[in-house]
Amino acid sequence: MPDNVAGRETEPDMRGSPGGDLLRLGKFLVSTLDLNDRLDRVLDQAMELLGAERGSIMLLEENGDLVIRASRGLGDGCRFRVSLGEGISGWVAQNGEPLILQDVVADSRFRGSDPSVKSALAVPLRVGERIIGVLNVSTCTRTRRFQRPDLEHLISFADMAAAAIENARLYQALKEDQDRTEKELRLASRIQRSIISTHVPCASVRMVSRLMPASAVGGDFFSVIPLDRDSRFCFYCRAETQDRCQKLRTDFCPQKFGLMIGDVANKGMPAALIMSVLTTILYELGRRHISPRTILDEANAAFRRFFSESQYGFATLFYGFYDNNDNTLTYVRAGHEPPLLLRRKGGSVEFLEGEGFPVGLMEDGEFQERTVRLEKGDRLLFYTDGLTGSLNLKGQILGRKRLAELAVEHREEDIESFLDVLADEIMLFSGDAPQPDDIAVMVLELEDLYDLTMTVGTDVRQIRYVIDSVLETLQGFQGLSDPVTLRLCLEELLHNAMEHGNRCDRSKKVYITVKAEPTKAIIRVRDEGEGFDHRRVIAEGEGRQDILSERGRGLLIVRHYADDLRFNREGNEATLVFTADRRRGN
Description:
Number of helices: 15
CATH topology of the largest domain: Phosphatase 2c, domain 1
Strand order of the largest sheet: 3-2-1-6-5-4
Helix content: 25-40%
Number of domains: 3
CATH architecture of the largest domain: 4-Layer Sandwich
Distance between the termini: 98 Å
């Protein structure tokens, strides 16, 4: 056999100079950490070292079987496995001793099916005192018989190869564990985010939010808690509001809701697990109670009962209850960062202070309940201490004062842009400094005091009732002489919200607001879907020659009849505007 096998001229020739060439071979073997690649390299080099025609590497599995993981010239034998002690390889693995065979087929331990094999070597792959597998090489050439020096070369090679193989196995196991952990963390992150809900059931209130954990999952949380429809709470609403709600097919009150934002001590998976439990507790309590102090008293008792032995023994929390009947927010602050209230009228800025211990810290939280009244355009910024505690490379902390300055500086932005700009400002402040803590932010804004606010379930049977209610509200609108076109536009938007936006998911809601003026009617329809690229859909509809195509046709009809049709950035809210002047002109 030639010294260099064809196609392997760059690989070292090992025969005749085992010392120096084994060193170079060692460097060659460790050039990859992939287990399969390393096994292939070990086998190729062993066969070249001994001038063998066939070979295999069998690794010992946890169940005691030896399984071929790399082979050359064996055909279907690459799927071969034997038990410990069985066959030539099993004997070598069990006894930890090498074998040199001059007549393989005649050996009683031979379990192969190829009688052409003449001479073979089998040596254990040993790491310390532990056998991890067997290295086999063989030849079918009558003139080639392995001798004692060949066995000694292969043993020396096998000792080095075993270490290389074991390192690759450990790396592979570590990588698989890491991949599994990352997969579980991604799943945990999706589960954590699915727990969080910021869909506000009240149509006159808008909310945007952002969660930025320092790791894959964290202990910061926020959520909106809808109030169960229950006659116990109906006395808070006017008689006409109660009558309207009774006709709506929705499980939750469209006039009142709870909201919370909190931070479990520390971060990472343990904090995320506690956050999930605490969020569930608060959600269930908030659906049945309207007093934030009562809710936090019960949550505090439950927290101490479940997590009293945990090192994460408390959580800061802000819990509020909003009532759309008088635009009031009643709240309790349990050791949490005070929300920032930006008044539209007068431009004042204030922090919502309040007394109370963090949840779980004391048997009696001493929670102090306070109430603040909101007006049109007022904006509330809720946040966790990861925001105000942001650090830059100079070791400076952002702090509440700088946060208030940023909020005032960008208060004229719409609510979505306000949150985006705020996040950008925090990133500019921090620069390349690592994020030391989880960050959660919610922004709530009281929009126009509408003449009609409705929250309905995803049920097309409610569309007629919604349209009738809107038309009744617009009786003072001078452009209502022809209600057919308005009904057509409303029906299209409501169908889109339920079928395309909410994808007929009956657990999701549609929110309708109406502002009626003598010469203008403004109607807003919002769903809980992910939105769509309304610009592209409308552009595609305008560019189609086939006017009967359903692609964007409905929106084109609405745009034709309405004085204005616009969407929010996400595409899950449409605003429809009619003016009396144009109606009279038609």
